[in-house]
Design brief:
- By secondary structure, the chain is an alpha/beta fold.
- It has one domain: Acetylglutamate kinase-like (Carbamate kinase), CATH 3.40.1160.
- The strands form six sheets. Strands 5-8-2-1-11-15-16-14 form an eight-stranded mixed beta sheet, sandwiched between helices. Strands 6, 7, 9, 10 and 17 form a five-stranded mixed beta sheet that branches. Strands 3-4 form a two-stranded antiparallel sheet.
- The longest helix has 25 residues.
- The chain starts with 11 loop residues before the first helix and ends in a 10-residue tail after the last strand.
């Protein structure tokens, strides 16, 4: 059955969109990576996002006319379940060490409980969410992580095929993706920041928003509001950048190398968070700049834009299943002139949950 891209008058999605004027996404779908603690209410048990924050997020997602995708974490919940089962969580350089028992917990929590809870809550607040994982429909082709000997059953994205999420976006859905991949039938735990960066590049997204419980990158005791490419590399070499921040900066670098115009690392701050990060007025660390493409996930299936200057992308095939659509790309200085990019062609007025 062919679905209409827009909600009927008076529907839940129409009501949510009425909370705020529709904000045109800067050139296409925005990829939001939601850390496991990003929406937790103060004093909550850590069993999931707070109701008020979830309602605010739903309203903002519904107001982005270019569409949006959520990649979610859930590391705190995975660790909590590991603790219940007598499994001690271990981390190396901010990445979870995943033995076979831990992998079963991660897959059950991330692709199961956390994903379905988030989908259910978003749908209850009017967003037409649909839950997937990185392996579904071959979205992410994965292989063992280069440091698998130390990290265990952890994967790395080798190639992306965005045909399925692009098709869902074109039909008005909001894909909600868990970072569980597979290689040769073996499930693998993926770093959600890395997966979100690869997805943003594959969809030629203008922005990647990495939301967690940290307000951004802190260097020498102060929040770093903006980084260019050189500043990003300097930050990665800074001795204070450890733990979970380092994978976020590496993901930001991969996204920029894949053609994403800007990446923001920020904390959920209530209504207007996404909009302020997209227009550059929000609190957090915004990273923008040109980074030469290098080895990275291949992006399968797009044809080159007919009249657009080429955008830097990692070597490999392009995004599958899209057709050119006129759009404008935002860079760190503001809006560039419209140009043709390869994205799902959807009416400009179509609401995007």
């Amino acid at each position: 059955m062919v679905r209409s891209a827009g909600p009927e008058d008076g529907s839940a999605r129409a009501v949510v969109r009425g909370d705020r004027g529709v904000m045109p996404a800067p050139g296409g779908p925005v990829v939001v990576k939601l850390g496991g603690r990003a929406l937790e209410a103060e004093g909550s048990s850590g069993a999931g996002p707070g109701a008020a924050a979830l309602r605010e997020l739903a309203a903002e997602l519904a107001s982005l006319s270019g569409g949006s995708l959520l990649v979610h974490g859930g590391g705190a919940e995975v660790s909590a379940w590991c603790g219940r089962l007598g499994l001690a969580p271990r981390f190396e350089d901010g990445l979870r060490v995943t033995d076979p028992d831990t992998l079963e917990v991660a897959a059950a929590v991330l692709a199961g409980l956390a994903n379905k809870r988030l989908v259910a809550l978003l749908r209850a607040h009017g967003v037409d969410a649909i839950g997937l994982s990185a392996l579904d429909g071959g979205i992410a082709e994965c292989g063992p992580h280069p440091d698998a000997g130390r990290l265990g059953l952890v994967g790395a994205v080798r190639a992306m095929n965005a045909a399925l999420p692009a098709a869902l976006l074109a039909q008005g859905y909001t894909p909600v993706l868990a970072s569980i991949g597979a290689c040769g039938g073996q499930l693998l735990n993926l770093n959600a920041d890395d997966f979100a960066a690869a997805l943003a590049a594959a969809l030629r997204a203008p922005a990647l928003l990495l939301l967690s419980d940290t307000p951004g990158l802190r260097l020498d005791g102060a929040l770093a509001p903006r980084l260019d490419a050189a500043g990003l590399d300097a930050a990665l070499a800074h001795p204070e950048v450890t733990g979970g921040m380092r994978p976020k900066l590496l993901a930001a670098r991969a996204a920029l190398a894949g053609g994403v115009a800007r990446v923001a690392i920020a904390q959920w701050q209530g209504p207007g968070t996404l909009h302020s990060l997209l227009d550059g007025s929000g609190t957090g660390t915004t990273i923008a700049g040109t980074i030469a493409a290098g080895a990275g996930p291949a992006l399968t299936g797009t044809s080159p834009a007919a009249s657009a200057p080429a955008r830097a992308t990692p070597a490999g095939p392009a995004v599958a299943g899209t057709r050119p659509a006129a759009s404008a790309i935002m860079d760190d200085a503001g809006e560039r002139s419209p140009r043709t990019t390869n994205r799902p062609a959807v009416p400009a007025e179509a609401p995007r949950g």
